[in-house]
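By convention, each integer encodes one residue's backbone shape. The lines below illustrate.
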Amino acid sequence: MPSLIRFLFIVGVIAGIGYGAVFALANFVPLKQREITVTVPPQTFLKR
């Protein structure tokens, strides 16, 4: 049983580090907004 608790603790620590990394990226990395224009050729609408 102690090995199971140790395993769950290690998995929890790794998950916490991953969650912290995602949280830091989401909150501290500034976003650059820009416009995107995509031209769709008319032949794509004529597919049968």
